[in-house]
Amino acid sequence: MTTDCGAPIWILILGIIFPTGLSNEHFFITNSISEGLLPSCGALRKQYEEDERLSFAPFPPDISGQWISERCEIRPGPEFIARKYEFYKNHTFKMIQFFYGDPNCVLPLYSLVAHGSFDPIGPSWVTPGGLEIDFTLFNVKATPYTNDVAEELFYRINRTCPDIVQKRHWKPHHQYLIYSYDDDEHDESSNLTDYDCLHGIHAVFNEIQLIRIIKRPGRIISFSPISKFNMKSYLYLGDIHPVPEGRFSYRPTSYQEPLISVDTAIHCHTCARHTPSPRRKIFLPTNFVPRTSDKC
C-alpha cells in the first residue's frame, strides 16, 4: 500500500516512530496496517516535521546512566553485536559487548566486560556537535558461551600473550582477564601485572572518544489525530574502523548506531527482556527484531 506521496505508507510510519531503527513494536504497526488503521500522508509528514522540531542535542551531554542497543547491530567483519553500557557520575564506566554468530543476535558467542574511567576534553574539531573524551581502561574480561568459542578465544589470546594467559583451556561461561592496567588511582591494593591481549580478538573501546546525545520524541503507537509521546534519549558513540587491524590507532570521526537510555525506553522490549547465562551474572539481550524485517 502506498501513500499519496508515492512512498509505502509503512516506511513513513516507521520513519516517524522509530527514527533510529526498528524495535519490537513493529508488530503493532503490522497489525494496524492489516486492520486498515492508517493515517494520511499529510498527517505523517506533519508529525515527522514536529518531531524534528522538538528534537535537540544537549551540550555538554550528560551520559550518566545505562544505555543499551535497541536491536542487533552489524559491524565490519561482519560482527554481530549488542551493547550494554553504563556510565557513572564519578566518570567511571562499565561497557559490555555481546557478540553473536548471526545477524539476528540469536546465537551468543562471547561477551567482553570493560571497566575504566573517562574525562571530557571539549567540543570536537572534526565532528560538529560531538564531544571528545579521553579514557583509561582498567580491565577487560572475556566470557565464551560455547566450547568451540572458548577454544578459539583461548588460541587467539594465548597467541597474543603466550606468557600471560593460563595454559589450561578455557571453559564456557567462565570469565577470563585479557587486559589489565593498574594506575594506583582506581585500586591501590591491586597487585596485577599490566598486560594487553586485546589485539588477539581485535577488541577496542575507543568509540567512547566521541559522543553525542540526541533527545527526540518517542511516539507511543497511536494513529489518533493527537499522538502522544515521551522524549527518548539516544547516545551516539564513535565509529569503528572497518579494518580490524586498524582499530587500535583509529580515532572516531562519525557515529555508530545509537544506544537508547534505559530510563527513557518506554515500550522497549529489548531493554526489558534479558536472558541470564546459566552460571554467570551477565545478561544476554534477546528478542531483537530480525534484521530482515527492516528492509524496505
Concise overview:
With 296 residues, the chain is of the alpha+beta class. The longest helix is centred in the N-terminal third of the chain and has 14 residues.
- Helix amount, in percent? 10-25%
* DSSP strand count: 13
Structural class: alpha+beta
Q: From the alpha carbons, calculate the radius of gyration and give it in angstroms.
A: 21 Å
Widest beta sheet: strand line-up: 1-3-4-5-6-9-10-11
Order of helices and strands: HHHEEEEEEHEEEEEHEE
- Could you give a short account of the major beta sheet? 8 strands, antiparallel, barrel
Give an overview of the whole structure.
The protein is 17% helix and 31% strand. It is an alpha+beta fold.
Keywords:
296 residues, alpha+beta, 8-stranded antiparallel β-barrel, two-stranded antiparallel sheet, 5 helices, globular, disordered C terminus
List the helices and strands and how they pair.
Layout: H1 9-17, H2 26-34, H3 41-54, E1 65-69, E2 73-75, E3 79-87, E4 92-100, E5 108-123, E6 131-144, H4 147-160, E7 176-180, E8 195-196, E9 210-219, E10 229-237, E11 259-261, H5 269-272, E12 274-276, E13 283-285
Antiparallel strand pairs: 1-3, 1-11, 2-3, 3-4, 4-5, 5-6, 6-7, 6-9, 7-8, 9-10, 10-11, 12-13
